[in-house]
Amino acid sequence: MGEPAYAKKMYRWVDENGNVYFSDQVPPDQVQHKRETLSEKARVLDVLEKAKTAEQIAQQKRLDALRKEQEKIIAKQNANDKVLLSTFRSIDDMNKALSNKMASFDAGRKVIEGNIERLEQQLKQQQQQAANLERGGSKIPPKLLTDIATSKQQIEAGKQELARHQQDKQTNEKEFKADIARFQFLTQSNSDGKPSNGDSLAASNASNELGLFVCQDAAQCEKAWKIAGEFVATNSTTGQDVESEKLIMRAAPQKDDDLSLSVSLLERNNSQQIFLDIRCRQSSIGNELCAGAKAQSIRQAFAPFIQSSLAAQQ
């Protein structure tokens, strides 16, 4: 049977010294503590969380803003995964596509190199013509001098185009190989060959502590990113899910005691920052885990771990 509507309620709370109180009224000097509303049968009817300080509220706002940015990165990764899986059927298909793409780049390179070779031959002829005129005691026509200068400029422009073309090839090859590795992970991550589903990840909003490392420069951030990946792997209880240049994320938590860590590389206030987030299973126990001391201690240890690891590398 349910509790009578007129049943008298009791409150239970714990003060800053760990003392437990039961009363039908909460004194004004105790209202800041987390408290439970109990029925006459000691059943918890409601829970009022502990009042946050102004500093904690400000931290929570920053944490929410960082999480929104990270969620954008995760959403983009999920969208890329869908495109990847709908575009290719197998690793062989991707390797063939990569081979064709590299062949296309090589063909483009040959065209550019051919143009440079033609211009160099043209310049050689122009310079030879100018040398013959000088040996014969004739003045070199202004048009020929202009043509020589133009040929040199065109050759230099061609070399710059070739360098850009080669850089584009390297970038495309690197990105394509990363896509191949991602496709392989997605299609082999489960025994049924289907990609993992990260929709069940539940981000805890209870913690008011930030896991944030602000990089001094790009070189330090590159080292810190690798260290952050080690931290995620060490402190997570779930397997690998995503590992890219801007996001490292462990697989979705499946059990109530699972901790799934992720780090994202963010651009904020003209600086690079590495943000740690901790996710737990969408359950009452999971939410308590992410709001509890264990998750808080992991978050608090993140930046010091990176700093000490960087110092050890010097």
TrEMBL record:
<feature type="coiled-coil region">
    <location>
        <begin position="109"/>
        <end position="175"/>
    </location>
</feature>
<keyword id="KW-0175">Coiled coil</keyword>
<protein>
    <recommendedName>
        <fullName>DUF4124 domain-containing protein</fullName>
    </recommendedName>
</protein>
<dbReference type="Pfam" id="PF13511">
    <property type="entry name" value="DUF4124"/>
</dbReference>
<feature type="domain" description="DUF4124">
    <location>
        <begin position="4"/>
        <end position="34"/>
    </location>
</feature>
<dbReference type="InterPro" id="IPR025392">
    <property type="entry name" value="DUF4124"/>
</dbReference>
